């Protein structure tokens, strides 16, 4: 087996210009045979492979698969694999499969389309057994993506391997993207996630071995991060570590580099700390539910960092074998190594669920990519379902109502000595703040003062609070800016955008000199949004802008990076550079909605109304379901004085899933001005239910109801206004009228 493995590795490494400091997995395995055999059976080994018979699982016996607008044919010829399908122009074209992507429970295939691009084809092979519904071709998304004009069509940016997948599926990956030609010459040292992805370049290590200079202090390999050892002690039902975590954990520095939803700040370097090369995304909707459970694909780290286990110093390899990737014991047995079964397997904990499984309740599964069930890693207690959340209990009790769930959890036996779980309170506050409920501010401030929360959960509350009550959130933001966790300081920089400029400036100036790159990048992006003139106000901010430009230039294969460069060029009044950056963003992704909307606004300010209209028409064509698009097009019609024509677009904007209170406010004002005054009041009343604490909605609803002499609606509006803004001058005047 070892000889076969070494021969295979010899054929699949060194095929490209690899970094000379990387020696390749075959060199490592020559000495570390046991680890090599374990890795050979891991998902890391199978993350990507050449399209050879040994690795291709799909049926390529000249079969077809039809879905939506597309029929694809899968066939093999002369030992090679091919897929005939629609290309970007809508023509039936044959593409050679270059690599497999993943293994189980599904396998995708990478097709080369020109310009050095590898694209992940979106018809995948279900590799589960036929008895589980597998052994079939299936479409990963809905039928809309089979249209070549859809942004997620397989040949587009969002399915591009070089930009979006490769860094975490290969070892020592370098994009080598040329922004002038929009082409890649990507390189790697190992075709999959191999030894040096985690241990770092192996050249120095092998030289130590060869020169007999190896020692535990001089291994030649990178530090993987700290792992504590946990022990059960008599009388304590939960294992504890004898020491505390004094350095970043392996979960963050090594595993988290790929097992996270994050933005790149540079080309990934295995030896660099996480926050110096990535920005971790917060636990915001729609990536997470309102109680912090996973909703979209977030790849573990953001979920895990919310947990008490992370706080205690538990890390990935406490549960998972680092070479196989599997848990060290099957199922819930791994939980029993730290959570005494004598306590946690008792009825007081399981409520009589004889076959209760820790994982099903505390790590509920959610299915992604059609068949891939992934577990939540927050390890929280099951909670009552919130408006945009998901209760683990409903995984099994599918047909039960929320009332039943509430009663069942209320009646659940309480274990003596169990610590209070603040998740329910946090989730409820998080949801109220997401609805712009200003009455949640006092409760949130009290909650933050009384509870020690993970940085991600604290940040989620404060970033919503500042939108509703900026001045009252200033102290909380200032406190975040001094937190030792870079995640908290990033949040402070984002939240500062909601403060008055006189309050945000000292916070952002301080954070501009933060030692962590991810924090400085958020600061730069925030300043660019709220007050770009600050970049020439102080030397630290001038240096910050230069660094931020380097970050964006290093990720110019991303349309968002080019949009940032366009904004900087506008600030610097470099019109040609701004146009070039906008065009580059839209060359990478012609359907990039933020780019289309921003470019339209830029062109309008230049006086080019026709081109601005064209960009908005493209945005409407590609993103008609988005509130921002409908709103922008409605404003265009208002500028053209086509007021009646604007109303349908404003109406759609106000009713979309991603709508903001402002959309409903502008729609109501437009209705009022078009003499549809009763409808305007009704729109405001409805919007005030969706966003109960928005000041503009409440004030305008009350004023319009008063002018319309709608007594019932006026009473409702004034009552709602007073619940949120009892000291407001306008409310007090209206309150006298209602009396």
Automatic annotation (TrEMBL):
Entry keyword set: Signal, TPR repeat
Lineage summary: Bacteria, Pseudomonadati, Pseudomonadota, Gammaproteobacteria, Alteromonadales
PANTHER family xref list: C-TYPE POLYHEME CYTOCHROME OMCC, DISSIMILATORY SULFITE REDUCTASE SIRA
Membrane-spanning ranges: none
Repeat positions for TPR: 559-592
Cytochrome c-552/4 domain boundaries: 27-53, 162-200
Top-rank lineage group of the source organism: Bacteria
Protein name, per record: Cytochrome c-552/4 domain-containing protein
Leader peptide range in chain numbering: 1-18
Annotated source species: Alteromonas lipolytica
